[in-house]
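quick q for whoever's on today - can somebody do inverse folding on this one?? i tried earlier but teh output was garbage lol. tokens:
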């Protein structure tokens, strides 16, 4: 579909929805680990042949999944417009001013963030995401990210996440001496001995800059990140499964790999962050109540903060209550729990097809009327791209490294 036709279709959908457009659910398969099967699919739906199994759901995504087994448009979200198949990525390219506002669209090429639910049976391997400087060398972009662990979901067998390395390793300059042999041998998971683990607490989360090692725990996680799928994997085995060593070098330039081998991967890491003795204090993100948006009918919290790369909120509306929620710019939502309305749009958590919406800039600023028509709390997660909430997003107190 050409850009002009896309713009016409998007403009019509925005007009009909009074600034709100539905999104279709977007599922992503992985081959390297087993799914936790908490995404609400049937047993048969998780299995997708050579692509592996469905382990993630991406939300309002303009980012294509960088999988070994390619599948057309995997990871890219679609607007839910009758009779049309329009990617969110194409919609923002053709009608960015209508979706994001003219001023924001003039300085941003898209929504600039990726929200996802990831759901694995075992802890995810010890890995990192390249900084912008390193990712640019392979034609990609950086991947700063943040986690939120929703309440009321089974936590899995290992609900704790490893981050960074023990501080002494960096303080004494021993990162190559200690870690490089694990990468060269590539035969175990014992590299985790040199990292520190923190409990995944429901209702809380973490903020993680790019360039930092981490092995996420088995808690179902709703993640907000920069729109990228770069990584380097440093753990050879996960619960008996062998991880391809090609994932170690996935986003390492060919010349660097040929010249430095496994050491080239360690050269990509941001070591002062990995060895931060106050890593927990500087990166743990409990919810922060937004007093101006909270009251008898509802409570709103910052859950993704501590950065300007993206931000996000959790809006909880009590049964029988209605609120007008105003924000500073375009966002998309996931209805996590409960049922109700967003203006005239029926919404319901865990009901695929009516649990995702895109709220345009103009409508976000004017306000959306969210109403809880059910008997339990209506819980809505809002995902914002870079720079929208720069003047209001909170930051954690900084503990010096």
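ok took a stab at it. sequence:
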């Amino acid at each position: 579909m050409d850009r002009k036709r896309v713009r016409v279709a998007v403009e019509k959908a925005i007009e009909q929805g009074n600034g709100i457009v539905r999104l279709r659910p977007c599922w992503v398969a992985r081959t390297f680990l087993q799914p936790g099967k908490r995404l609400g699919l049937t047993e048969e739906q998780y299995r997708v042949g050579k692509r592996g199994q469905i382990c993630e759901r991406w939300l309002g995504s303009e980012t294509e999944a960088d999988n070994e087994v390619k599948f057309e448009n995997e990871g890219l979200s679609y607007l839910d417009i009758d009779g049309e198949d329009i990617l969110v990525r194409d919609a923002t390219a053709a009608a960015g001013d209508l979706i994001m506002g003219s001023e924001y669209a003039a300085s941003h090429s898209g929504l600039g963030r990726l929200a996802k639910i990831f759901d694995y049976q075992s802890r995810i391997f010890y890995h990192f995401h390249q900084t912008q400087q390193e990712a640019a060398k392979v034609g990609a972009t950086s991947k700063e990210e943040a986690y939120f662990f929703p309440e009321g979901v089974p936590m899995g067998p290992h609900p704790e996440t490893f981050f960074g390395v023990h501080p002494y390793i960096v303080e004494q300059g021993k990162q190559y001496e200690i870690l490089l042999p694990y990468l060269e041998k590539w035969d175990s998971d014992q590299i985790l001995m040199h990292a520190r683990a923190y409990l995944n607490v429901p209702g809380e989360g973490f903020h993680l800059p790019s360039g930092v090692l981490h092995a996420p725990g088995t808690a179902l996680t709703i993640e907000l990140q920069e729109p990228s799928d770069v990584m380097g994997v440093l753990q050879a085995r996960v619960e008996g499964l062998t991880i391809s060593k090609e994932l170690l070098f996935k986003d390492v330039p060919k010349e660097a790999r040929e010249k430095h081998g496994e050491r080239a991967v360690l050269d990509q890491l941001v070591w002062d962050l990995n060895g931060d003795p106050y890593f927990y204090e500087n990166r743990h993100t409990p919810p922060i109540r937004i007093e101006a948006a909270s009251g008898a009918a509802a409570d709103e919290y910052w859950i993704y903060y501590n950065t300007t790369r993206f931000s996000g909120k959790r809006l909880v509306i009590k049964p029988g209550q209605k609120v007008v929620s105003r924000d500073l710019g375009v966002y998309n939502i996931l209805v996590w729990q409960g049922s109700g309305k967003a203006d005239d749009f029926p919404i319901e958590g865990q009901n695929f097809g009516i649990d995702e919406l895109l709220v345009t800039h103009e409508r976000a600023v004017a306000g959306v009327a969210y109403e809880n028509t059910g008997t339990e709390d209506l819980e809505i997660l809002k995902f914002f791209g870079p720079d929208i909430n720069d003047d209001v997003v909170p930051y954690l107190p900084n503990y010096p490294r």
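fwiw The chain has a mean pLDDT of 97. also The chain has two domains: 1-24+287-401, 27-76+111-283. so keep that in mind when u check it
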